[in-house]
Structures are given as C-alpha cells and as structure tokens.
From TrEMBL:
Superkingdom in the source lineage: Bacteria
Similarity annotation: Belongs to the TPP enzyme family. MenD subfamily.
Lineage: Bacteria, Pseudomonadati, Bacteroidota, Cytophagia, Cytophagales
Domain Thiamine pyrophosphate enzyme N-terminal TPP-binding: 9-115
Listed name of the protein: 2-succinyl-5-enolpyruvyl-6-hydroxy-3-cyclohexene-1-carboxylate synthase
EC number from the UniProt entry: 2.2.1.9
Catalytic activity: isochorismate + 2-oxoglutarate + H(+) = 5-enolpyruvoyl-6-hydroxy-2-succinyl-cyclohex-3-ene-1-carboxylate + CO2
SUBUNIT field: Homodimer.
Source organism of this protein record: Arcicella rosea
Record gene name: menD
C-alpha cells in the first residue's frame, strides 16, 4: 500500500497551487512519482536528466509566477539539481524540491544511491526540511503536513525562492497492482496571508526632503520581470519630473528609457555622475555601468529590496528600502506632484541632467544603427550583424531568453524595440552557461507565446539534454550562434593574449546541431554566408510549424575583429 502521508503531501501541494511537477525517474522516489502522476489536478513531466529537469521547472515557475515542484530519487540525482537551485535562489524563483532518501541508518553503509542529503543545497535554498522515516504515528503525520505547508508558504513569500524537503522512504515503494489511491480532501492546509510593506508618513517626508536636495537623481533598474504598471510610473517620472531611468535589456523597461549605456559609458562622462542613485531589481549586465558608478559614486544610494541581504553593487549604498518598486515609485510620483502643487511651484524640475543622459543615449543608438549599415557586413557573415537583424525582426509580445557569455552581452548592446513589449529573460543569478536551453524550454512549455533563445555553441551543447525528452513544444525557437569555441575569450584582454587560448579558454570544437535537431524532431536551418542567413532567417521567423533551430556558423577571429571595431568606433 502506498504511504498515505505521501499521498497527502501531494494533495497539500495541489491545494496550495503547486500544480506542476517535473519528475526524474527512479525507484526510491516511486511513491512520490505515483502520487503526483495520479493526482487529477497536477500536470507532470518526466525528465530523465535531473540538471535539465530543475532548469525546466525554473523556466516554468518564472512564467507561471508560482512554485513548481521537482522530484528525484536518492543519491547523486539530488546533486544534479544544484546548478538550477542556485540560479533560482539568486533570481528569487520559487521551487519545491523533493528528494527521496534512504533512512539515516543506511548512510555510509555501502548501500546503493546513498549520500548525505540533509542540507545538501546549503545556503542556496531559503530553508531545508527533512521528514522522519516514520509515517504512521499521529505526531509524524502532523509533522509532515506542517512541514509541507511551511515549505510552500516560505517558497512563495517575498523574496521568493527554492525550498528543499528531504524524504526518507523505506520499501515497499509501489502499491499493489490495480490498487486505488485516495487523496484526502480533509488534509490540513495552512494559509499564510501576505502583506505589503509600506513606509510611514514620517519616513516619506524625510525621503522627499532628501530628493529635493539633489538636482541629479538617477533611477536604475536591474534584472526584473516586465511589469506594465511599474513601466508606466517610471515613464511618468522621467517625462514629468526629469528623472533619467536606466536599465539593461533584462530590466524590461518598455519605454524610451536610457538603454544604450553599455555603449557610451565606455567613456568617462563625469557630468553624468548622479548625486542620488535609486536602484531596484537584481543584477546588472553592463560592466561599463558598474565601473562608472563605482568610480563616480553617488552621494546617496537607495536600493529597493525585500531581500534581507545587504547588496551594495556600486559600493555606495546608504539606504535599503524594503518595499516593492511599484509602490515606492507610485508614492514618489504622487508626493513630488503634491509638493509642487502645495508650494505653488509650476516650474518643471531642471531637465539638464536628463537631457545629458538622453543626448548620449541617442548618440549611441544612432551609432549602433549606422554601424550595421557598413558594406563589410554584406561580404562576410558575423554574429553581431546576424543577431541585430534577427532582433529587429522578432515579433511583438514574444519572449526572448538570453544564454550567458557573449549572447547576453550582444543583446545588451543591441536591445529590442520597446514598442514590441518583448519580455527578456536570462539566467543572471549565477550567470552560468548550464541550463540555458532547459530554462527556455520550460518557459515555452508554460506559455502560448513564441519563445526565442539566443545561445552560443558551448552553452547549447552543454545543455542539449534539454531536448532529450518528448515534450519539446512547437513555440520554441533557438538561435544558435556557433563560432566553434568560446568566442568571448578572444574579446577579453587576459586570455586573448595567452598561448593557451585555443585549447584551454576558447575550447575549439567542430560540432553543429543538425543531428541534435534530427533526434529531437526539430526543424533545422544552417547559415554560413550572408545570403544563406537572409534566406533562412525569413523561414525561421515564420510563427507556424514545429520548434526550430537556426544555426549561424561564423569565424571567431572575424567576430572579434568586428566587435572590437564596433567598440573602438564609438570612442573615435
């Protein structure tokens, strides 16, 4: 007979809105697998590679904006979750991690698939829980129900993140043939009411006084989901009160904000130095921006975050304000407007600081467009040109996932048309190349939108197990930039000057994705010339049909020449 508390555990997950589970096959986790699969309100996928499975779940949770469960057997299977768990932790994405385990007495007894699983993910989960091996005593049942409720509530509380429940299980693992499983509808569900942090009138008065002291106020957004309400209020603050608003591609600011700073901040423009810096969101891609603000420190730096960690990216932090960005900026807009009305001040806030930012941003944007009109782009295919042309043609209201290394950097230089409302995602929590295909596939499985992935060859081949399943959705589109090695290392001063560049940094390889596409039953296109690129890009961008891979093969040395020419050209 299947253990009833395990059945009830799955029922609690469902009742609390965890309706998707990614399961990796195994024997020790069989009771969990059977309960998940037989639950009428939970959608399950079977993904053999645990590392891929966890990233797929993370991509789904990002889109669904609620926890997704992952479940695996005992032993090293649990360790394979670690890269995705760490990424989810730093991106604040909720996952419910269920790892089956042997009872404690069998650890280090030369028994199969047995390792130390307690607290296996360390500080990369919000909390680890462990059930006892007893599933019969009333106190044990109470403990299981309490623990599952606690874990789900914690995962879905700001800042959100992964939680881990380790579950020791004894044999037998399987119910009898044709045995019915009964989900207890009277199982205990403990609700946690979420509240929204606000600031007192006194604090607001002080903050407003501080803002009025400064002429140069810069608002900067790190990685953040697309939020139409937040976008609207930030646009008003820029347009009505002359606060420049800046964000990388992954900040998802869908208006005419400062977005080409990665190009023009390679120069030290001292009059752009802010007096007050207000930041929100998570990581920033732009090294130029981080370097600029560390060199030109603001007098005050306020960071909006519900995270208990003190994050001082620009080495200038003076206040942590634990509220949601939308609440803060809407209140700021309202109070600045009211103060001007109360004081009878009809004059606009001095706009010279905003104009300086906009002037440099427009100059960079104009240079970017002009650069790609050069004749040399028509003679030999380079990856920078190919990405620009594809980004220009992306359909409105689609999703764009960016792999790490050069993919995310190219995208930050180029950007997307903000009028198209293309939401941009990237695994910038840990910035690893592992799991980029899986994350995009998970996103595609949880939306009807077209999901595009821009990825380099090393990141693609590292995670091609993402396509080793029967669920590859038709709305997935992969743009594979194959320069047959880690091209970024030719663009960085350190490794590019070393004798070991080719073998130990760039890691030259001769693979392409054609056989992978055939095995996964995905449409495949390959371009090595400019003409082939333009021919196949039209077909690739058609919205109908199966999942597609568009592989663009280029020369790493030539790509480096073009990119260095681009960077030097703006300075000149």
């Amino acid at each position: 007979m299947l253990l009833q508390p395990i059945v009830n555990l799955v029922e609690i997950l469902s009742r609390k809105g965890v309706n998707h589970a990614i399961i990796s096959p195994g024997s020790r986790n069989a009771p969990l697998t059977i309960a998940f699969v037989r639950h009428p309100d939970i959608k399950t996928l079977s993904i053999s590679d645990e590392r891929s499975a966890a990233f797929i779940a993370m991509g789904m949770a990002q889109n669904l904006k609620k926890p997704v469960s992952i479940c695996c057997t005992s032993g090293s299977a649990a360790y394979n979750y670690a890269p995705a768990v760490a990424e989810a932790f730093f991106q604040e994405i909720p996952l419910i991690i269920l790892t089956a385990d042997r009872p404690k007495e069998w650890i280090h007894q030369h028994d199969g698939q047995t390792i130390y699983q307690t607290d296996i993910f360390g500080k990369h989960v919000k909390q680890s829980f462990e059930l006892g091996a007893d599933y019969s005593h009333p106190d044990a049942i109470w403990h299981i129900e309490r623990t599952v409720n606690h874990a789900i509530n914690l995962a879905d509380t700001f800042p959100k993140g992964p939680v881990h429940i380790n579950i020791p299980l004894r044999e037998p693992f399987y119910p009898a043939e044709n045995e019915q499983i009964n989900f207890d509808k009277n199982v205990r569900v403990i609700e946690r009411l979420n509240t929204e942090n606000t600031l007192s009138k006194e604090i607001w008065a002080t903050l407003l006084q501080n803002i009025e002291q400064y002429e140069k106020v810069l608002i900067a957004g790190g990685q953040h989901e697309y939020d139409p309400a937040l976008t609207a209020v930030l646009q008003k603050l820029q347009e009505e009160f002359n606060f420049p608003v800046l964000g990388d591609a992954i900040a998802n600011l869908k208006f005419d904000s400062i977005s080409h700073h990665d190009i023009f901040l390679n120069q030290d423009i001292e009059n752009l130095k802010p007096e007050l810096l207000i930041t929100f969101g998570k990581s920033f891609i732009s090294k130029s921006f981080k370097t600029f603000l560390r060199k030109n420190k603001a007098i005050e730096h306020w960071h909006l975050s519900l995270d208990n960690h003190l994050i001082d990216t620009f080495q200038s932090l003076t206040k942590v304000i634990p509220v949601q960005p939308q609440y803060f900026f809407e209140k700021l807009l309202e109070d600045v407007d009211f103060e001007q009305f109360r004081n009878g001040d009809d004059e606009e806030r001095d706009g010279s600081y905003l104009e300086e930012w906009k002037k440099n941003n427009m100059k960079a944007k104009s240079y970017l467009e002009h650069f790609f009109l050069a004749d040399f782009h028509k003679k030999q295919l380079n990856e920078f040109y190919a990405i620009k042309k594809l980004f220009d043609a992306l359909p409105a209201d689609s999703q764009l996932h960016l792999a790490n290394s050069m993919s995310v950097r190219y995208a930050n230089y180029i950007g997307t048309d903000y009028n198209k409302k293309i939401e941009v995602f990237a695994n910038r929590g840990t910035s690893g190349i592992d799991g980029c295909v899986s994350t995009a596939l998970g996103a595609a499985l949880s939306t009807d939108k077209l999901v595009y992935l821009l990825i380099g060859d090393l990141a693609f081949f590292y995670d091609r197990n993402a396509l080793w399943n029967r669920y590859v959705p038709n709305n997935l589109r992969i743009i594979l930039i194959n320069n047959h090695g880690g091209g970024i290392f030719r663009m960085i001063d350190g490794p590019s000057k070393q004798a070991e560049l080719a073998d130990y940094f760039e890691t030259v390889q001769s693979y392409n994705a054609e056989k992978t596409a055939i095995e996964a039953d995905i449409d495949y296109f390959n371009a090595k010339t400019v003409d082939e690129f333009h021919t196949f890009s039209t077909v690739f961008l058609e919205p109908n049909g199966k999942a597609k891979i568009f592989e663009i093969e280029t020369n790493s040395v030539y790509n480096t020449e073009i990119f260095k020419q681009f960077k030097a050209g703006f300075s000149d």
